[in-house]
User: Which sequence fits this backbone?
């Protein structure tokens, strides 16, 4: 199961794993729209509980255009993770180019109330060559 995740970052005892897949059936290539789905697993390896509060994404397309997306939680949730617990979610990204990248960070709140910034690993968004035109 671990091999499912291609990209990993560990920060302050919290592991973020990412798997990404191009979705040709959800893309509209003739209209210049490519779509990817990404699966994220967050693992609390700390000795205290944490709660995910915010997300901050930097999405870059093939032309170097950067879109910053920030907000509360992930897919409408602010999961609370006790030591050893994990949280999985799936989301998507659409670009007007056939490749790009995503990276960012989450802000968690630890038991004592202090913020903990956790890296989301850089991962490429790339359509297969036959889907790139």
Assistant:
């Amino acid at each position: 199961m671990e091999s499912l995740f291609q990209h990993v970052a560990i920060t302050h005892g919290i592991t973020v794993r990412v798997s990404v897949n191009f979705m040709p059936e959800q893309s509209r290539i003739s209209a210049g729209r490519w779509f990817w789905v990404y699966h994220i697993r967050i693992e609390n390896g700390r000795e205290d509980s944490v709660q995910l509060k915010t997300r901050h994404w930097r999405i870059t397309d093939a032309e170097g255009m950067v879109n910053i997306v920030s907000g509360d939680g992930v897919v409408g949730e602010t999961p609370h993770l006790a030591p050893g617990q994990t949280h999985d979610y799936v989301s998507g990204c659409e670009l007007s180019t056939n490749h790009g990248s995503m990276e960012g960070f989450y802000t968690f709140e630890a038991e004592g109330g202090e913020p903990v910034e956790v890296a989301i690993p850089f991962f490429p968004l790339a359509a297969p060559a036959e889907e790139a035109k």
The chain has a mean pLDDT of 94.
